[in-house]
Structure formats: C-alpha cells, structure tokens
C-alpha cells in the first residue's frame, strides 16, 4: 500500500471574479481519501439515542441527518466500525461516548462525500458521562471534534487517534472552557487528556481556548503534529499556527501541560503569492507574560529557528512570550512512529528546507525513526519535481540499494545510485511507506520541499512557467500527482541536460510589451437605431495601441481609435420615425486606457495559443454630429434628396441650447466613456498576437446624434430664437420649389413636404428624442507584435543555468 499523502486545498477566495487561483503541495493525501464508499450494507444511525447503545464491530453506519446522544445515554463504538457522515451532519453528544478501537483495528470516522463534507462530533452539556476516544481515525471531516462552550465531563480522553485530511481552514479540534454551573459541585474539574494523537496532513488547527483554568486540567502530550498548512500573510497572529490558545496569566488552579510533542514541517503559506512564508508550530494570545512549552521536539537544533516558528511576543509585542527551553533533542519514543533525522553521506542534515549538494556517484542515506517501524509496499522514497513542459507535478519512485535495518528497526540505511536527478532545482525527495507496530502510518518526510516550492512559485510569479499546482496542494496532497505511465520520464535523462524543463514549449508573455494596429467597424446605439444596433450603419474604424503584459493574467493597454458613427430615420418602418426625418454622422476620436483579464493564461503552452480575455477601462473621446439639409422625396426616382454639404449641428443648438433664458444646457464635444468588452486572442509564432475584439462604450451623454429631448419653439411656432443665436448656413430650395433656411431644416426636416399632401406636425408635445444615454461600439481585428520576448527568453535561459542567481 502506498501512503502518498498530499492536500487538495482549493482556496476559493482566490477566487474572486478577476482572480482565480489556487492549492496542491503541502498536505499528503492518503489513498483512502479518494474513497468510493459502498453504502449498500450500511445501517442508518439517526434520531435521538436516549438509552445506552453499542454498535456492532465490523459494521458501517451512516449518519444521514444529525444524531444526538442524550445526557442519560452512552454510545459505544467498538473496533473496526466505520461511521460515515453525510454532508453537514453532526454527532451531538450530550451524554457519554466510548470509541474503543484497538491497535491495528481502528474505528473510522469519515465523510460520505469528499467535497461536501460532514462536520464531526460535538460534545455539549454538563450532565453526561465520560468521553473516551481511542484508536480512531478522523478523515475528511470539517470539525472532527468540538468541546462546545459550557460543556463539562469529569473525564475526556482522546488517545491514539489520527486526525487527517481536514481542510476546513479553521479550528479542526476545539477545546473550549467547561462550565460547572448546574453540576451540583461548582469546584470540580474536568480532566482532558489529549495524548499520543496524530494531527497530520491538514489545512486547519487545534485551538485550546485557555491554557489556564479553574475547571480544566489539560494534558497535551506526546502528539505528532506535522505536514499541516495555514494561509496567512502576517506573522504575530496566533491562529496562523497548527496549535494555539489563550493565556492571561490569571491566578487559576490549572496550567495546561504541553510536553513531549513532536511538531515540525508545518507551514504558513502566502495565498497571494502562493509561496511558503515559514515553518510554524505554536501560537499564543492573551495578556499573560510568558508560557512554557518546553520539552517538545521541533526537529531543528537551532534555538533561534525554533522561536521563529512561534507566533508570540517576538512577532507581536501584545502577545505573551513562549519559552521553549529545554528543547528535546530527540522525540519521545511514545509518540507514534515518525522520521526525525536523516543523514546524507554520513552527515546529519541540519536544514531540511533544501536538498544537500550531490558530490559523488552515489548518495548514502540513514533514516532515523523514534520507535520501531516496518516498511510497506515496494518503495520508500520518491522524488517529486515540477514538470513545466507538461504542466504537472511528477512523482518518480526511486530504487534504493543495500537496504538494511538496525536491530531494533529504528534506523534504515540504504544507497541511491546515479543520483543526478537530485540536481533538479525544482524537485525534492520524500520518504514514506512505513508503519509502526500499532498500525499508525509514518507521515511523509520531505527534504528540500520549501526551496523547490518557492523556486517554482517564483518562476510562476515572474511569468516563466504556468501555474499548474498551488503551494498548499503540493505540500499536502501529492497523491493527486500520481503520473500515468505515458507521462513518466526518467529523471536521469532530465538531469543530463541540466533541468531544462521550464524552458520547454511554454512561453509566457508576462512582463512583455506589445504594439499593434486595429482595423474594424464602428457603430452606435441611440435615437436613430432600430433596436440595440443598426446593422446598416457600420462604418470603417482603425487605431493603434500599446500594451504591457503585467502577468500571465493581466495586461494594461493605452490606445487611440478613430471611427464614424451614423444613423437615420429614413430606413425605418415606423411612420413616426420616417416623419421625423432626422439623420446624422459624427467622427469619433478616442484615447482609452484599459485593464485586460485573461480567462486562460496568456502564453504559449504546449500548442495552446488561445487566450480569451475581458477588458474594462476609461476613455476620453471627441465627436462632432453633422447632418445634410433634407430637400424632400423625388417621386420619379423614389429617393430622398439631400444637399452635398454636411453641416455641424452643435453650433446651432438644435434644441434651444444657445437661446438665452431657455434653460437648456449645451453638451460638450469632449467627454468620458467607459469601455468594456471581450477579446479572443490568438498567439502566432510566439511574437505576434491576432485578436478579435467586441468592445462597448457606455457614455454619459444623449447627444452623440444631437438628439436628446424636445423641440424649442417660439410663441409663434417658429425657430427664430434658435436661428438668431446660430451660424447662418444660408438657404436652399427643396424639390417642391419651396425655399427654406438651412438651419430650419436641420432642426426639423419634416417641414420639407409635398404641399399637395397633408402636413403632420412633427411629434406630439414637441418631443424630439428620449432620455436614454447613447452608446458606441468598436469591433474588429487587432494585430500586435510582442516586444522584449527575446530578452525574456535569454533571461529565462540564464535563470535555468544559474548564471544570474539562485532561485
């Protein structure tokens, strides 16, 4: 059996509309996590348990809805029982609980669904019997064990139990303060023993509400806490650690005893950069001065490094100080089996965050365990590396030579031949597939993980490689990276060319410039369009632009566009629109600044050259609506006749904007719009990009077409007041022989009419337009040249061979 333990931490906050991202590196995931449960023979456990009840050994039980054990009852669960929680279900224990697994015969508590998980066990009330949990495995639950506020039991024992694959991102085990109110003896105490448990491979923490109490005596001893992650940027926040609690240094009867625990290889991850910030262990909050966490094993022998893993006074002067000395140099043999030391060519490794240098044709390993263990399956060592050509994390089983155990099975010595793969700068090794005599699997023990992950994260942030795994997943769930036979390549051949993987066929366009041309069409939506847009009024448009690709997800661009907008009533079927007889054209000049968000990574990846994107920004534009003078309908030809000359409409003030005292403000010919839309980007031969664009412009004016409201008429029904404040465009004679002032026709073309036909006054209540704002559009093709790509590739090559600096 392989114990490939690794996490799928999907951080959905990343996770907003314009960010997505990511989790896959820290918490090793056991094979049973991807379970397909056979529930055909499961017994449904439901309702209220109001009398003592014992489940049957070897059976499966399904909690389909919440179950409650009353204060008068005790539920007993013997060895080899599997208790399955449906989504969001809880076993509420107001009475007693005995989970009686035995060594090698555990009680399993897990979720029915891997994604929508069950909650776990809640202990509440203060009249129940003792809580005893022994040899149990809690997996894939949201909150496996909660001692709820104001609970009380004289005895709570949690021993020899595994908590793993908890991915709630919050307190997974919560020990709150008990209350003796209503128990009949206010001075009695609750004894909580949390001893010899494994808290491994989780995205979560253990929260102890108070390290000091008059009613709680807590012994937190000989536990193994490893391979867990938390997300957070800042130091000095106690909840960013796997074990934390409160200490106010009040004069209370009992101090929590936290002794002989093994706590190491737990990491704080920066979700925004997807990189490991530091190793973490204990956190403390409150007003106390100092609290003792001495006699624990932290793997490191560097006192300063150990203190850096605490969230306490050193990082936040409002917190108590944690005191670690004396520090255990070796872990307690009572803690369940784990690796605590590795020698590389006879020298003890002091820094497990990076791989030591390979100096010969072989590497000799000595792996030390705190208690006797045995190996299982065929492999005990894997090499994990980031394959940036195929966008995956590959797992390579490593053959070991001359393996031999010490007499008491606490030391395994072996040799690895031809270790060139260990020179891969984006890889690390993991020891696994061991079990102790009580059936506890030894957690995976990585070497070089932190450095490899942060190197990869740096390459991703700087645009050299695509992100195909998040840091949390790689640290915690490498089982999801099991490669297919087709994808496995020998690491020896890879290392022969010096780890060129991230120079492969993937080329990111991040941190490059582009310059290009736009050719397309422009149109508008307003009073002179049939519906949203008039397909007969598309006009030629063109432009230039420059773009900086900030990352593989975002770009910033600056561009200039020229187009023509137009519209007419003469193509309408609506008689009122035809009678209004208005038309216009307007050149439009636009300068815009946009941010572009790529829905797929912007780069060339294994032949994938398509990158759709959304954009939005701000634009400044200038327009100038114009019209020709309408001269009437030529009945013989069936055509409308116009002057050849186009006249500017803005100086006229066609709706009385220039008339003193009319109360109608004039519109500006220079305005702001909000561009947004979608791009379909196709990367051509890595240095050219062809883009199909559909872009909308929301404006803050209703006068792109010079039509916005109502006619302005003098008392005698003429436009003389407007003409008195307008330029003199002269007179014209229409096709019916009638002479008009050009300005009159431009204001109301409907006055040009056949004198032998009845005249319909133009629009009821002098209405000329509506109050809706106008839009304009650009759609077409863009072609751009990527600048600086050669320099980027040269830099990438220097990075590959370590010319400039280390990752």
Please describe what this structure looks like.
This protein is mainly β and 807 residues long. Among the domains are: 194 residues, Porin; 90 residues, no CATH class. The chain contains 8 helices and 58 strands. A 9-stranded parallel sheet has the order 1-4-7-10-13-16-19-23-28, with no helix packed on it. The protein has a 9-stranded parallel sheet with strand order 2-5-8-11-14-17-20-25-31, with no helix packed on it. Strands 3-6-9-12-15-18-22-27 form an 8-stranded parallel sheet, with no helix packed on it. The N terminus and C terminus are likely disordered.
Please tally the helical runs, counting DSSP H or I stretches of 4 or more residues.
Answer: 8
Rg computed from alpha carbons, rounded to a whole number of angstroms: 38 Å
Uncertain ranges: 1-34, 465-469, 478-505, 797-807
Oligomer: single chain
> Helix fraction?
under 10%
Strand order of the largest sheet: 1-4-7-10-13-16-19-23-28
How much β-strand is present in the residues? 35-45%
CATH class of one domain: Mainly Beta
Overall pLDDT level: 83
Pick out its properties.
disordered C terminus; disordered N terminus; nine-stranded parallel β-sheet; 807 residues; Porin
What is this structure, in a nutshell?
With 807 residues, the protein is mainly beta.
SSE map:
Blueprint: E1 43-44, E2 47-49, E3 53-54, E4 60-63, E5 67-69, E6 74-78, E7 82-85, E8 90-93, E9 96-100, E10 107-111, E11 120-123, E12 131-134, E13 136-139, E14 145-147, E15 155-159, E16 162-164, E17 171-175, E18 190-195, E19 198-200, E20 205-208, E21 212-213, E22 216-221, E23 224-226, E24 229-231, E25 243-246, E26 254-255, E27 257-259, E28 262-264, E29 267-270, E30 275-279, E31 282-285, E32 290-292, H1 303-308, E33 321-323, E34 339-344, E35 347-348, E36 362-369, E37 373-375, E38 381-387, E39 392-397, E40 401-405, E41 411-417, E42 427-431, E43 434-436, E44 445-447, H2 449-461, H3 471-476, H4 491-496, E45 507-508, E46 512-525, E47 539-549, E48 554-568, H5 575-580, E49 583-598, E50 603-604, E51 610-623, E52 626-634, E53 639-648, E54 670-684, E55 688-699, H6 720-724, E56 731-733, E57 739-741, H7 742-747, E58 775-787, H8 789-800
Parallel strand pairs: 1-4, 2-5, 3-6, 4-7, 5-8, 6-9, 7-10, 8-11, 9-12, 10-13, 11-14, 12-15, 13-16, 14-17, 15-18, 16-19, 17-20, 18-22, 19-23, 20-25, 22-27, 23-28, 24-29, 25-31, 32-33
Antiparallel strand pairs: 21-26, 29-30, 34-35, 34-36, 36-41, 37-43, 38-39, 38-42, 40-41, 42-44, 45-50, 46-47, 46-58, 47-48, 48-49, 49-51, 51-54, 52-53, 54-55, 55-58, 56-57
